[in-house]
UniProtKB/TrEMBL annotation:
<protein>
    <submittedName>
        <fullName>ABC transporter-like protein</fullName>
    </submittedName>
</protein>
<dbReference type="InterPro" id="IPR003439">
    <property type="entry name" value="ABC_transporter-like_ATP-bd"/>
</dbReference>
<dbReference type="GO" id="GO:0005886">
    <property type="term" value="C:plasma membrane"/>
</dbReference>
<keyword id="KW-0547">Nucleotide-binding</keyword>
<dbReference type="GO" id="GO:0016887">
    <property type="term" value="F:ATP hydrolysis activity"/>
</dbReference>
<dbReference type="GO" id="GO:0005524">
    <property type="term" value="F:ATP binding"/>
</dbReference>
<feature type="domain" description="ABC transporter">
    <location>
        <begin position="11"/>
        <end position="241"/>
    </location>
</feature>
<dbReference type="InterPro" id="IPR027417">
    <property type="entry name" value="P-loop_NTPase"/>
</dbReference>
<dbReference type="InterPro" id="IPR050086">
    <property type="entry name" value="MetN_ABC_transporter-like"/>
</dbReference>
<dbReference type="InterPro" id="IPR003593">
    <property type="entry name" value="AAA+_ATPase"/>
</dbReference>
<dbReference type="Pfam" id="PF00005">
    <property type="entry name" value="ABC_tran"/>
</dbReference>
<keyword id="KW-0813">Transport</keyword>
<keyword id="KW-0067">ATP-binding</keyword>
<keyword id="KW-1003">Cell membrane</keyword>
<keyword id="KW-0472">Membrane</keyword>
<comment type="similarity">
    <text>Belongs to the ABC transporter superfamily.</text>
</comment>
Length: 242
């Protein structure tokens, strides 16, 4: 582990920066700059800020959807030990996504010929569970989110926005990852569905899952966060105890 990181931290972000090239304007825009953040195992960290402030960029750099320009993202992996997500190879990243790090956003990207039931079941089986157990857990999760049984064996392309979002959350949470990144997952959910998400978040917290979450609904975050960071113009301004 490099300086600044600690074995007691499951995640240590040091000097993270990311920019994007606007080719039509021949201009480079800095999304985040000099972001440092240390997360202990089992903590829930909330990140707040206006749209475009860089919140999602941080999570996408951790998940390696984006490759950062500068800085380190040290993750204390069960399989690999301390590993820098900013420079890990693709094989390692794929393995971590399957077994240790989950990501939930308000968007659902799936294979077009995969049913809702198959999506959730595949997520569980990736963790090494037998088919019977995976089927039982799939039923429990789909029932928890009250996804109509008639949709279970349908393709998500036919679902409403809210149904897709509930499915997306279900297949990420059912894996019970060590580190879960929540990128505004409740943005288009009604109040009842938000409460079902909160029930599962609290359950995962009790089981020891570490989480970083972005939510527009600050009331939703209020009794969940151990610490809250506010970001403006790509930089953290304050850190407060929730």
């Amino acid at each position: 582990m490099k300086e600044g990181g600690s074995m007691e931290n499951i995640l240590s972000i040091e000097g993270l920066a990311k920019s994007f090239k606007l080719h039509n304007l021949n201009k480079r825009i800095k999304a985040i700059n000099n972001i440092s953040l240390y997360v202990k195992e089992g903590e829930f960290i909330g990140i707040t800020g206006k749209s475009g402030s860089g919140k999602s960029t941080i999570l996408k750099c951790i998940y390696r959807t984006y490759l950062s320009d500068e800085g380190d993202i040290w993750y204390n992996s069960t399989k690999f030990g301390p590993i820098n997500l900013a420079s890990a190879n693709e094989r390692e990243i794929v393995d971590l996504r399957k077994h240790e790090i989950g990501y939930v956003s308000q968007f659902l990207n799936v294979m077009p010929r995969t049913t809702a039931r198959e999506l959730v079941k595949q997520s569980i089986m990736e963790m090494g569970y037998q088919e019977y157990t995976a089927e039982m857990e799939t039923v429990k999760m789909l029932e928890h989110f009250e996804l109509d049984r008639e949709l279970w064996d349908s393709y998500p392309a036919t679902f409403s926005g809210g149904e897709k979002l509930r499915l997306n959350i279900a297949r990420a949470m059912v894996k019970r990852p060590r580190l879960l990144l929540l990128d505004e997952p409740t943005a288009s959910l009604d109040g009842a569905s938000k409460q079902k998400v909160k029930v599962l978040i609290k359950q995962l917290m009790e089981e020891g899952t570490t989480m970083l979450g972005i939510f527009h609904d600050l009331e939703f975050m209020k009794d969940l966060c151990d610490r809250e960071y506010n970001i403006q113009a790509g930089k953290f301004l304050i850190s407060t105890k929730s």
